[in-house]
Design brief:
Helix content is about 25%, strand content about 15%. The strands form 2 sheets. Strands 9-10-11-8-7-6-5-4-3-12-13-14 form a 12-stranded mixed β-sheet. A two-stranded antiparallel ribbon has the order 1-2. The longest helix has 14 residues. It is globular, with a radius of gyration of 20 Å. The protein starts with about 30 loop residues before the first strand and ends with a helix.
Length: about 350
């Protein structure tokens, strides 16, 4: 997909708010100039994580954001309220880093669940701590969880995450299901020479436990900037591997803006999804807007620029000014992520700092 410039300055940290494009419709929605409307807000609550997955960050971790830079519960509540009641957001996904590390997570979720219209609320997590927190999060208003899990083999889990915590993750997934945080979805990344032949095994595990598997092509979002296209396990390879053990047929249900292509397993009703962000981009149907833990709007996971909302929050700006800056940021969204362009540049921030 070719990325073209819109010719608009994009507001960022210390940037200048662009003049209003005369072609832009008068609407409160988070509309971009390519006709897409963002109704799904991904909210990073922290850049910290208690795992050290090899494809995400180095063993020693990263230089974490200072606590004073992070949005507070009150600041998050205000931005989420503006997004839902003023800008048309209908779905919230809390991410990290690892969002369970936020001690006020249940309160943040409760604030969001109290909004009208009530948004759908989900959480992407590594599962550590879910045993203790699943019931409280459900009571606060959380609807479901996505758990990152790349293998069900203890030794390999330790190799990938640099932590011996597989049993805790599996227990957390069971606790989430028991608490009603369903469907529990499993997000897996396959890495060549490490777990690239594990797709059937992961699917069998999910089928046995009533979870929904989503296998994701590895994306260039690692802190080390070591991603190589040749090392990425492609969607075609994933599907070929799954078909060695299962019959897959396309799911007839409309995909819409969902990132996963879904397949019926052995005729259904169980499904498996493949998220082919690199080889089968779905940018044309994207409905997401993103908020980092330090209050920056990103119009795309792979954006190289950000738009600062935190400065408005902390300078007593009104809701209208915040909404307008958010709208401006989304209007300038590019048509695609550009991963397949020769001039593609990986974002400076890694996935752990952007939010999944």
């Amino acid at each position: 997909m070719t990325v073209v410039s819109l010719g608009l300055p994009v507001p960022g940290r210390g940037g200048v708010t662009p003049p209003r494009d005369p072609a832009r419709p008068q609407t409160s929605a988070l509309l971009d100039s390519h006709g897409r409307v963002a109704t799904d807000l991904r909210i990073s609550l922290t850049d910290r994580c208690n795992l050290r997955c090899t494809y995400c960050m180095p063993a020693e971790g990263l230089d974490w954001l200072p606590t004073s830079d992070l949005l507070t519960r009150a600041e998050l509540a205000r931005l989420i309220r503006i997004a839902v009641t003023d800008l048309g957001v209908r779905e919230l996904r809390f991410t990290g880093g690892e969002p369970l590390l936020r001690g006020d997570l249940a309160g943040i979720i409760a604030d969001a669940a109290a909004l009208r219209p009530r948004p759908e609320i989900s959480l992407t997590t590594n599962g550590l701590g879910l045993v203790r927190k699943a019931k409280a999060l459900r009571a606060a208003g959380l609807d479901r969880v996505n758990v990152s899990l790349d293998t069900v083999r203890p030794e390999l889990f330790h190799q990938i995450t640099r932590r011996d915590r597989l049993a805790d993750v599996l227990a957390g997934m069971r606790a989430a299901a028991d608490a009603g945080l369903t469907p529990v979805k499993v997000n897996a990344v396959l890495m060549r020479g490490i777990n690239d032949d594990h797709a059937p095994e992961l699917l069998q595990f999910c089928l046995e436990h009533g979870y929904e598997l989503r296998i994701i092509e590895q994306m260039p979002l690692d802190a080390q900037h070591g991603w190589e296209r040749s090392e990425m396990v492609t969607a075609e390879e994933i599907l070929a591997s799954l078909r060695t053990a299962y019959a897959l047929t396309p799911d007839s249900e409309a995909r819409g803006a969902a990132p996963a292509e879904r397949w019926l397993v052995d005729g259904g009703p169980a499904t498996v999804g493949v998220i082919a962000s690199v080889t089968r981009p779905f940018c044309g149907d994207c409905d997401r807007t993103r908020l980092t833990a330090d209050g920056q709007v990103r119009s795309c996971l792979f954006s190289t620029g950000e738009t600062d909302l935190r400065d408005l929050l902390r300078s007593d700006a009104g809701d209208d000014a915040i909404a307008q800056r958010w709208q401006d940021a989304m209007w300038a969204k590019l048509p695609g992520h550009g991963i397949n362009d020769p001039g593609f540049l990986q974002p400076t921030r890694p996935m752990s700092a952007i939010g999944g």
